[in-house]
Amino acid sequence: MVELVKFCRRLAQTPPLEGEGEGRLKEWIRNNVTMTFHTASSCSILPKKLNGIVDPQLKVWGNIRVADLSVILLYVGSHTQSVAYALAEQGWVILVDTIMKAYNEK
To answer: For the residues 46-56, what does the mean pLDDT come to?
Structure first.
């Protein structure tokens, strides 16, 4: 947070922000500040007949696996980082289990 405040102070001393009135500052913000977000639910875990992309084993109709926020069905009402960590951990468990089963079959 300290570094962010330092950066904001330096930024405020550069054109077009330096010495500008509030109206110009609001105009600059409207024209230059954007929001970004992580696309979620683009590869939802659903049955194929319901247009799902990923199965419960995180497989995309074949051998590739997806373990990111694109597989969640609904948006979460909290910070998505914890959900991403949980998906990564579950993906690791699934992957290790798959590898161990293949190893034990040999």
So the answer is: 89
